[in-house]
Write a structure and sequence with these properties.
It contains 1 helix and 5 strands. The protein is 5% helix and 32% strand. It is elongated and about 40 Å long. β1 and β2 form a beta hairpin. It has one domain.
Length: 79
């Protein structure tokens, strides 16, 4: 099946892959970091973020510093 990967910490969309069993896509805490739900279309300046509790994708604006390529030490702390 086709799966859609997201970062386990930030839930930001990472790409797609294929897996036979979605249960193999869990982080150390046992939380999923993939879904079979495709992210919606998004434009430049936006990013899909998976809302795990609601089991759906949300489109959020990319923070200005990241979009400008000046993420600095906060690069791994996207909302």
């Amino acid at each position: 099946m086709k799966i859609y990967l997201f970062d386990p910490g930030t839930c930001v969309y990472l790409g797609e892959d294929f897996a036979e069993d979605l249960s193999v896509c869990q982080n150390e805490a046992g939380l999923p970091h993939a879904t079979t739900i495709a992210p919606p279309s998004f434009r430049r300046g936006e990013m899909p973020v998976f809302a795990v509790a609601e089991n759906k994708w949300e489109i959020r604006p990319i923070p200005a510093a990241v979009a400008a390529g000046d993420a600095g030490p906060q690069a791994n702390r996207l909302p």
